[in-house]
Specification:
mainly beta; Jelly Rolls; seven-stranded antiparallel beta sheet; six-stranded antiparallel beta sheet; 13 strands; globular; NADH-UbQ_OxRdtase-assoc_prot30; Galactose-bd-like_sf; NDUFAF1
């Protein structure tokens, strides 16, 4: 079911969501996209390059770690047959507020590089998106990706994504042959 998530400005006490050593007291309000507490399986979609003939495989599961819910994406990314991605994607119910400057994740994984893909009202073709990479470790950590760090996947797109035109956000294992495992327990915009 699409569009079930209501996006609102919420005060986040970072010490409750992230270990205190990562708290950033300068950010007290964020647009919470998902904290995986309320039926995330109704909002998040998983798909692979098989939609275009690739052979990558995987899945998404929702679990808890010490009472804190999270999503786990696992799979095998293969560049065979012109493929090379698996992803978990969430359609946004409405654009984020004016003044949004970045994406925040709380993640852990298998010491690999992953990506966030943003789609906007201007990314109408399936292969169009804005991409920013980040690395994960086996420990939960906060990742902040300023919108200025995202790059367009094609030349016919705006150079940077416009916050008010955002339509979806995805966590992606992309671009090379590897085993993927990434856990995500919070997604927000700042």
């Amino acid at each position: 079911m699409r569009g079930l998530i209501a996006i609102g400005i919420a005060a986040i006490i970072l010490g409750g969501a992230v270990p205190p050593l990562m708290a950033d007291e300068s950010v007290t309000a964020q647009t919470v996209i998902d904290d995986f507490t309320m039926q995330p399986e109704t909002r998040w979609r998983f798909f692979t390059d098989q939609v275009m003939g690739g052979v990558s495989t995987g899945g998404i599961a929702f679990a808890q770690d010490d009472g804190t819910p999270y999503a786990r994406m696992t799979g095998r990314v293969s560049t065979a047959n012109r493929g090379g991605f698996i992803q978990m994607q969430l359609d946004l119910a409405s654009p984020p507020p004016e003044g949004t400057t970045g994406v925040r994740l709380v993640v852990r994984g298998n010491a690999q590089r992953y990506f966030v893909h943003l789609r906007t009202s201007g990314t109408v073709l399936p292969w169009q998106y804005y991409q920013a990479g980040f690395d994960v470790t086996q420990n939960w950590s906060e990742v902040r990706l300023p919108l200025g760090s995202f790059t367009a996947s094609g030349a016919l797109m705006r150079r940077l994504p416009q916050p008010t035109s955002l339509r979806s956000i995805a966590v992606v294992a992309f671009g090379r042959d590897h085993d993927a495992q990434i856990d995500v327990r919070a997604v927000s915009l700042y």
